[in-house]
Amino acid sequence: MQDLQSKQDLDAKLGALISEHQHMPGALMPLLHAIQDNIGYVPESSYSQIGRALSLSVAEVHGVVTFYHHFRTHKPGRHVMQICRAESCQSMGSEALEAHAKKCLNVDYHQTTSDDAITLEAVYCLGNCALSPAVMMDEEVYGRVSAEDLDALIAEAKA
Amino acid sequence: MMTTPNISTKVYIPRDSSALSMGAEKVAAAIAQEAKKRGLEITIIRNGSRGLYWLETMVEVATEQGRVAYGPVKAKDVPSLFDADFLQAKTHPLSLGLTEEIDWLKKQQRLTFARVGITDPVSLDDYIAHDGYKGLKKALTLSGAEIVKAVTDSGLRGRGGAAFPTGIKWNTVLGCKSDQKYIVCNADEGDSGTFSDRMIMEDDPFVLIEGMTIAGVAVGATQGYIYLRSEYPHALKALNEAIVKAEAAGYLGENICGSTHTFNLEVRRAAGAYVCGEETSLLESLEGKRGLVRFKPPLPAIEGLFGKPTVVNNVISLATVPIILDKGAQYYADYGMGRSRGTLPIQLAGNLKHGGLVELAFGITLRELLYDYGGGSATGKPIRAVQVGGPLGAFLPESQFDTPLDYEAFNNIWAVLGHGGIVAFDDTVDMAKMARYAFEFCAIESCGKCTPCRIGSTRGVEVIDKIIAGTDTVKNIKLVRDLSDTMLNGSLCALGGMTPYPVLSAMNHFPEDFGIAK
Ligand SMILES: NC(=O)c1ccc[n+]([C@@H]2O[C@H](COP(=O)([O-])OP(=O)(O)OC[C@H]3O[C@@H](n4cnc5c(N)ncnc54)[C@H](O)[C@@H]3O)[C@@H](O)[C@H]2O)c1
Ligand SMILES: Cc1cc2nc3c(=O)[nH]c(=O)nc-3n(C[C@H](O)[C@H](O)[C@H](O)COP(=O)(O)O)c2cc1C
Ligand code: SF4
Ligand code: FES
To answer: Which of B48, B415, B439, B462 is most exposed by smallest CB count within 10 Å?
Structure first.
């Protein structure tokens, strides 16, 4: 993820990503992923530029971005922590883990800690159900996560 | 007698993401470092997982007698493994003996998962050395209709959950005349308690690529897409690495293996919407739209991606095709019971001591799986309820644990086998809360196209909240039943249409949790 300071930087990056993806069949999803991978989120200010390139209205782009849980329209913290809330993890105490995370981080889901270190998200299954409860920190999965393990992950992310 | 290894000893450390979730990366680093420190020559191979997840990180050492396993290994155990001379297969408190002799693994019937955990997932040479691409080679000697017949004769039914015969679906696409057809792999694996698709993609990606290529050759499709859930970054890497290698070696692209067939393959990432696992919602998403469910008919087989005839199949369905072509339809059909032919990769999850991947012929009972394989609950308490088939599957009480794994047997008790995920709960589970969650999940994930699902699910949460609070229990129970009826009969797709399975099964089998007499 790059830290794009100015609006010009952002527009240039967007332009490059758009020309790279716009000719794919069904280009919108790969393009939105590329934007989020590079910029960290899909800025609402990008909708018109995307729409022009793909012959879509701003409302259509907005509709797609907001339909999918994965896409976010605001800058996340330096790390994203996803706690699995699905059944298998519930059977191994994920509810307590969720409560613990919210308390330690002093945030609710979709919020970012005051030091900008961690954005907390809910997730519905990480495919690690044999080792529930599971948590994902950025792109890494953790299994059989205890409250202490979570504390260690948080400490590491904040360091 | 001590013999110093003069040839480099092979050490296997999984790269599967569940193994990584237990620290496999740290173990691999520690082993490499310790070997270097001691001046020992080793070759580390990052294999897939054998699927005995409670033993991860499982480290294996190659010996003349076969591979010897140690687990669960933590990075801190590494020096003691070297002290015990594990490179010479010597014993250590974490010794598990010969891997292939571990009862849990030995009793399985691994067909789709034949190579998983054994090979280096992204080595094409390893894949070919372990019977890879034999199915495609065979397919290239057959006509499209003959390939489809083999798949039909094998009895393979869609492993995504709906259990529709794969060969019949392919036949519909084969019969369509079109300038363009597609093979779409449904790799959205949204169900809680399931991870077999993930394992195939991370631990043996070539088998999926081969299966899709055979599908393309069979029905005359030249382009394939794998629609992969965004929660699986490791699968994305493994698939893309494997695709590049298959292309370079002429197994993808034009003139596959010197034939006249063309097949191109691309991975597309989903974006965290459960409903996009429903095939028509998935196709909308691939086309770059919101994942709104389409009306059926037309079936995707006739008008699918970009309006063209499209095979949509689950990862496991497609990954099972190579062995069917290689060993013959009858070989596969000889496994199983009734109309459920072949094997099912079963996923043991939730509150179980021994969670993991068990591939067996249909017919084994839930009880055998929960206790003989699962080892009972992880917490040591009695298992009270089991959810089979993901968030849209029914909850089963102990009195139903003797049901054999068979599509029809599950139908008969108003349950579903689905994608073969089994989630166990101990006696601390509150079934009213689980019913509430089922409605809540449906409300979060509803695509919003039809009212029973969009409004019914939210209403369901409110009514269950009243039941939990003990308000007008009898009246509200009736309300839930009416609501469920409407959703069952009036929903466009199975998200709204099957949410009543977990809700009503919880209520019927565990009424005491809803404040009503048993
Ligand atoms: N794996 C998961 O993560 C997951 C998640 C949710 C639900 N599910 C499962 O999904 C199931 C419902 O799926 P569905 O709504 O797609 O079921 P469905 O019965 O409508 O369709 C099953 C498949 O058969 C095809 N088909 C049906 N008739 C055909 C014909 N005559 N010719 C060719 N193809 C034909 C359909 O197109 C589809 O691919 C549920 O039973 C549930 O178990 C799985
Ligand atoms: C809400 C919903 C979610 C689904 N999710 C998946 C999924 O993640 N993976 C899958 O293979 N099938 C899923 N299905 C089933 C697909 O619609 C379809 O039946 C399947 O991909 C066909 O492949 P198969 O015949 O090989 O099983 C889902 C169905 C519904 C209604
Ligand atoms: S049942 Fe729900 S998810 Fe399915 S089409 Fe209707 S609103 Fe969409
Ligand atoms: S339910 Fe949490 S990882 Fe699958």
So the answer is: B462
